[in-house]
């Protein structure tokens, strides 16, 4: 690809979020970037889709009254021509672990792109877990996204022509927050952690659901092995997980035998 790529930029935090603006500014010098993103916060909606959505013009592109998946479909089918790459992010908060992928609107936007046979990159920034509000002002500072934006620009410049997307449908990128605004974190190729620790407590007529992983991350005691996304980010490295869109199939003898026995069953 000799020309600059045409990039559809979306997110789930909303088109006016700091993270999407940081990516827009970082990618504009290396691609033709148009944002097609939710008009407001649609975090953690997974691949939810609507039947009708409103659209309004925005200084970055288009604001959609819908989900990240709506944005990708609308952008690919109606609003943009010949999209070379979809970039989703930068999310304010990490999307780490295999069990999180299907929940995340950011990641789901990247997954949706792959069904159009368009490669995609989902980008999130890890904000360290704390009981106080120390990190909150930093997430509103564009320079705090420096690790994420530098890594994304590098991947946009290199991955399309390098053959990366011949082996992966999309990349899930998670970067540490750049506390001093400097993009100094190294990059590591990872796999999503399989450690799962969702818990539930009954309290009267309610059941409280909570993710114990975040408690461990706050304590710095995560059980994730080396080479996993969460381990990399907690140790201040940029995690890049090459992934395929769901759902993969694996045919095997045991299932074939069940199918053969079905007609003989009562």
Automatic annotation (TrEMBL):
<protein>
    <recommendedName>
        <fullName>5'-nucleotidase SurE</fullName>
        <ecNumber>3.1.3.5</ecNumber>
    </recommendedName>
</protein>
<feature type="binding site">
    <location>
        <position position="43"/>
    </location>
    <ligand>
        <name>a divalent metal cation</name>
    </ligand>
</feature>
<feature type="binding site">
    <location>
        <position position="12"/>
    </location>
    <ligand>
        <name>a divalent metal cation</name>
    </ligand>
</feature>
<dbReference type="InterPro" id="IPR030048">
    <property type="entry name" value="SurE"/>
</dbReference>
<comment type="similarity">
    <text>Belongs to the SurE nucleotidase family.</text>
</comment>
<feature type="binding site">
    <location>
        <position position="13"/>
    </location>
    <ligand>
        <name>a divalent metal cation</name>
    </ligand>
</feature>
<dbReference type="GO" id="GO:0005737">
    <property type="term" value="C:cytoplasm"/>
</dbReference>
<dbReference type="InterPro" id="IPR002828">
    <property type="entry name" value="SurE-like_Pase/nucleotidase"/>
</dbReference>
<feature type="binding site">
    <location>
        <position position="91"/>
    </location>
    <ligand>
        <name>a divalent metal cation</name>
    </ligand>
</feature>
<dbReference type="GO" id="GO:0046872">
    <property type="term" value="F:metal ion binding"/>
</dbReference>
<keyword id="KW-0963">Cytoplasm</keyword>
<dbReference type="Pfam" id="PF01975">
    <property type="entry name" value="SurE"/>
</dbReference>
<dbReference type="GO" id="GO:0000166">
    <property type="term" value="F:nucleotide binding"/>
</dbReference>
<dbReference type="InterPro" id="IPR036523">
    <property type="entry name" value="SurE-like_sf"/>
</dbReference>
<dbReference type="GO" id="GO:0008253">
    <property type="term" value="F:5'-nucleotidase activity"/>
</dbReference>
<keyword id="KW-0547">Nucleotide-binding</keyword>
<feature type="domain" description="Survival protein SurE-like phosphatase/nucleotidase">
    <location>
        <begin position="7"/>
        <end position="193"/>
    </location>
</feature>
<keyword id="KW-0479">Metal-binding</keyword>
<keyword id="KW-0378">Hydrolase</keyword>
<comment type="function">
    <text>Nucleotidase that shows phosphatase activity on nucleoside 5'-monophosphates.</text>
</comment>
């Amino acid at each position: 690809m000799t020309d600059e790529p045409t990039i559809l930029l979306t997110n789930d935090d909303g088109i006016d979020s700091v993270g999407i603006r940081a990516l827009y500014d970082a990618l504009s010098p290396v691609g033709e970037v148009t944002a097609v993103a939710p008009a407001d916060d649609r975090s953690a909606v997974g691949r939810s889709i609507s039947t009708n959505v409103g659209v309004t013009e925005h200084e970055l592109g288009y604001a959609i009254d819908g989900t990240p998946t709506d944005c990708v479909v609308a952008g690919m089918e109606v609003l943009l021509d010949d999209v070379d790459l979809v970039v989703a992010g930068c999310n304010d908060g990490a999307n780490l672990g295999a069990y999180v992928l299907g929940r995340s609107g950011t990641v789901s936007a990247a997954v949706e792109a792959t069904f159009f046979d368009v490669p995609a990159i989902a980008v999130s920034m890890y904000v360290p877990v704390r009981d106080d509000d120390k990190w909150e002002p930093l997430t509103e500072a564009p320079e705090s996204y420096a690790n994420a934006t530098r890594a994304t620009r590098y991947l946009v410049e290199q991955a399309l022509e390098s053959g990366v997307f011949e082996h992966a449908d999309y990349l899930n990128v998670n970067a540490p927050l750049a506390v001093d605004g400097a993009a100094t974190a190294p990059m590591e190729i990872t796999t999503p952690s399989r450690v799962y620790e969702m818990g539930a407590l009954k309290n009267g007529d309610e059941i409280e659901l909570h993710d114990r992983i975040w408690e461990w991350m706050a304590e710095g005691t995560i059980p994730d092995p080396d080479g996993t996304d969460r381990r990399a980010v907690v140790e201040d490295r940029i995690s890049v997980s090459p992934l395929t869109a769901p759902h993969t199939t694996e045919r095997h003898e045991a299932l074939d035998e069940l199918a053969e026995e079905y007609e003989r069953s009562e």
